């Protein structure tokens, strides 16, 4: 078991922030489970101490990077203009959120599925998709889980079977995207070497990927923190709080992190996270 101390790490806030769909509470327990990069993790928190049920080797190899532990979120929050009371309040409220460095292929499919969908339904769609097309594995504690389906697995699916996973009209998007990746029509690994604008342009070539989805993939998989996904929820918040425009230039390198604070702040004020639409 690995323990870390951080004033800017909240397991519950990360889970409910709308960026990760395979992280959930373990029943009524304070533990959370997470499946990422084909691995299963349980973690929990007491105050500012976070407990990872894994070896030091696994933490160093996967989870330290996944949770973006080398980024100083305190400095980012400190850089917010003190005159901007709304943004200061949002950052304080969601100060435990970290931008996860998630697997690119999984995020591409996940945010295609997220369109016109709510978090509860997205999680169910992805769970069904993984159970049907993902590899069944077993964690060291005996828990059975499923890895995220490969492009090969999804490219070989029938549209009707994807509909059975509750994907609706997104089924064709998922199938076409899987075929594009499988046939090398887009160089997924090459996206990491591109700047934000270039990566977004490439992602927009995928069937069913629009600007908002491309920005989500850039932010939550490629960790291009200048990406600032704007859905109707964010657009409404910006219109109410920044009628003269959000100061993007001031926060050019990490606007996406601030976007998460704004999103989570307004999300939690309005209703429980599971009832909200993350990006639509």
Please indicate the percent range of residues in DSSP E strands (runs of 2 or more): 5-15%
CATH class of the largest domain: Mainly Alpha
Give the low-pLDDT segments. 271-280
Q: Going across the major beta sheet, what is the strand order?
A: 1-5-4-3-2
Bulk shape: globular
The tally of helices reads 13
Mean pLDDT: 93
Overview of the structural elements:
It is a single chain. The chain has 280 residues and is an alpha+beta fold. It folds into three domains: 92 residues, TATA-Binding Protein (2-Layer Sandwich); 117 residues, Orthogonal Bundle (Endonuclease III, domain 1); 41 residues, no CATH class. The chain contains 13 helices and seven strands. A five-stranded antiparallel beta sheet has the order 1-5-4-3-2. Strands 6-7 form a two-stranded antiparallel ribbon. A hairpin with a 5-residue loop joins strand 6 and strand 7.
Keywords:
single chain, about 280 residues, TATA-Binding Protein, Endonuclease III, domain 1, disordered C terminus
Quick synopsis:
It contains 13 helices and seven strands. It has 280 residues and is an alpha+beta fold.
SSE topology sketch:
Blueprint: E1 2-5, H1 11-16, E2 23-25, E3 32-36, E4 39-46, E5 49-52, H2 56-66, H3 73-78, H4 85-93, H5 104-113, H6 119-133, E6 136-138, E7 144-146, H7 151-155, H8 159-163, H9 170-182, H10 196-203, H11 211-220, H12 232-241, H13 255-270
Antiparallel strand pairs: 1-5, 2-3, 3-4, 4-5, 6-7
Helix pairs in contact: 4-13, 5-11, 10-11
């Amino acid at each position: 078991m690995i323990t870390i101390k951080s004033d800017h790490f909240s397991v519950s806030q990360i889970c409910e922030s709308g960026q990760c769909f395979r992280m959930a509470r373990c029943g009524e327990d304070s533990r959370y489970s997470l499946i990422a990069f084909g691995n299963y993790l349980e973690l929990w928190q007491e105050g500012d101490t976070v407990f990872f049920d894994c070896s030091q080797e696994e933490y160093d190899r996967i989870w330290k990077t996944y949770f973006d532990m080398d980024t100083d979120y305190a400095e980012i929050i400190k850089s917010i203009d003190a005159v901007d009371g709304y943004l200061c309040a949002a950052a304080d409220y969601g100060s435990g959120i970290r931008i996860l460095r998630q697997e690119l292929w999984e995020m591409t499919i996940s945010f295609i599925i997220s369109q016109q969908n709510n978090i509860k339904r997205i999680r169910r769609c992805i769970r069904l998709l993984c159970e049907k097309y993902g590899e069944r594995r077993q964690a060291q504690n005996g828990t059975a889980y499923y890895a995220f389906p490969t492009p090969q697995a999804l490219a070989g699916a029938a549209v009707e079977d994807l509909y059975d996973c509750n994907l609706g009209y997104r089924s064709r998007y998922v199938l076409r995207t899987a075929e594009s990746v499988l046939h090398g029509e887009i160089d997924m690994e090459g996206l990491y070497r591109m700047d934000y604008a270039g990566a977004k342009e490439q992602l927009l070539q995928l069937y069913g990927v629009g600007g908002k989805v491309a920005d989500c993939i850039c932010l939550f998989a490629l960790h291009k923190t200048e990406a600032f996904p704007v859905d109707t929820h964010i657009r409404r918040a910006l219109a109410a709080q920044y009628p003269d425009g959000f100061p993007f230039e001031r926060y050019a390198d990490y606007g996406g992190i601030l976007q998460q604070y704004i999103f989570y702040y307004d999300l939690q004020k309005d209703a429980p996270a599971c009832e909200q639409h993350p990006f639509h």
